[in-house]
Amino acid sequence: MSQKTHFSDEDLTAFLDGEASAELAQKIESALEVDAVLMKRLEDLSIPVDELKTAMQQVTDQAPSLPDVLIDRTLASNKSPRSLLYAGSLAASVLISLVVGGLFGKTYFAPSEAQGWKHYVAAYQSLYVGDTLGNIQLSPEQIQKNLEDISGQIGFDLVKMTADSELSFKRAQLLGFKGKPLVQMAYLSPDGQPVALCIIRTNKDNTETIGMEKLEGMAAASWRKNGYAFLFIGGENDRVIREGAARFQALL
To answer: How far apart (Å, rounded) are the C-alpha atoms in residues 134 and 125?
Structure first.
């Protein structure tokens, strides 16, 4: 019997995020066919989103709070009264308390430290509905201030990413993942579905093509360019996400 290949949590996280090399992905897929322990490790690295959604139905009257690993940095970075008003209205409308252990005696959002950023973002995005963004009404001045503040934090011009004529831009939010700034830009698709373009710094090489996958049941497209990783996610329509990602990539 051949010796089993050992895969680190980082290897498995890269596989779950669709960022593993073709060689590594093939090795993991082959090992999964015969290694039940490896399958269990992958399951342990996944987020129990269905259970999380059930819990959220019982706590929609509670103020939202993000998990420590996905910190909302809006209040810390935007100190003006207008920015504080924006952040407060955002918190009231999103309704996404991802940690509800204090209410139910159980933590519903407790993935491994090795969990990849795309899976946290997907769990967050899966809680959005059309009204989450439909109720956000910002003036052009508020949007401009919002984009300028967050662009400075991540070192990336976000204004150009609002130029897509087929998507309705609603707002940008500055989060943090394991000490790195993570931006979520929220839009409504032509059919009213909430979708998001998420951006984080990376030291990995550029990708030549856009990768398509399913994350928490949603269509997702990802790519890397010039020191940043991008994820466009939301809804179940692969065409909307694939074509939207291509338009975003062309804006870079």
So the answer is: 15
What's 160's DSSP letter?
G
Strands in 180-188's sheet, in edge-to-edge order, are 70-72, 168-177, 180-188, 194-201, 228-233, 218-225, 211-215
Q: What's the rounded Cα separation, in Å, for the pair 164 and 39?
A: 40
The answer to whether 141 touches 72, Cβ cutoff 8 Å, is no
pTM over 0.70: no
Q: What is the mean pLDDT of residues 108-129?
A: 73
- Give me the mean pLDDT over the 20-46 stretch: 81
Tell me the per-residue pLDDT of 151-201, one tens digit each, with 9 for 90 and over: 998 999 999 999 888 999 999 999 988 888 999 999 999 999 999 999 999
Number of residues in the chain: 252
Instruction: Give the type of residue at 46.
Output: S
Query: How does the average pLDDT of the chain come out, rounded?
Result: 76
Q: Give the number of C-alpha atoms closer than 13 A to the C-alpha of residue 209, restricted to the C-beta side.
A: 5
> Please, which residues have CB within 8 angstroms of residue 76's CB and are 6 or more apart in sequence?
none
Residue for token pair 């996280």: 13
Angle at the Cα of 42 from the Cα atoms of 36 and 43, rounded to 5 degrees = 90
Instruction: Tell me how crowded residue 175 is: count the other CB atoms within 10 A of its CB.
Output: 23
